[in-house]
């Protein structure tokens, strides 16, 4: 598959994932916290999950595929040996942190979600949103040859 087509799919996934989290963090979450109503959040989550999780999977698949096209295979991950590999490694680290937040939310926060635990869920939402935006910004550096430290 051409790099350009992979990039389009990757960016579509990012638009859905990051856009959905920005809507959640800036529109839904303030209402949920104001009304102290977890059901509003759960309703959004149920709807968004149907397109958000597939979008995330598309980004992971296309991101790894594009990394291979740049010559960054698994053996080169986390070496930080060149600017493109640095972007790939940083995005993978942020992906792993996102997965940790997802596990935490799904196994520890959501099952006990109540008006009392909403601030902890808000922390998860804001963190994942911030990470998504950061990953988007990091991805834009590939256009300029990556990041050098």
Automatic annotation (TrEMBL):
Alphabetic keyword roster: Membrane, Transmembrane, Transmembrane helix
Top-level division of the source organism's lineage: Bacteria
TM helices/strands, residue ranges: 6-30, 51-68, 88-110, 122-142
Name of the protein described by the UniProt record: Copper resistance protein CopD
């Amino acid at each position: 598959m051409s790099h350009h087509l992979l990039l389009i799919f990757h960016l579509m996934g990012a638009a859905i994932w990051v856009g959905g989290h920005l809507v959640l963090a800036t529109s839904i979450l303030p209402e949920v916290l104001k009304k102290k109503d977890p059901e509003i959040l759960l309703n959004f989550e149920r709807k968004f999950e149907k397109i958000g999780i597939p979008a995330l999977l598309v980004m992971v698949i296309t991101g790894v595929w594009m990394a291979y096209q740049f010559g960054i295979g698994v053996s080169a991950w986390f070496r930080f040996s060149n600017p493109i590999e640095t972007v790939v490694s940083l995005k993978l680290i942020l992906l792993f942190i996102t997965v940790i937040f997802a596990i935490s939310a799904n196994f520890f926060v959501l099952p006990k979600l109540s008006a009392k635990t909403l601030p902890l869920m808000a922390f998860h939402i804001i963190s994942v949103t911030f990470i998504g935006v950061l990953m988007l910004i990091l991805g834009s550096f590939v256009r300029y040859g990556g990041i050098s430290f």
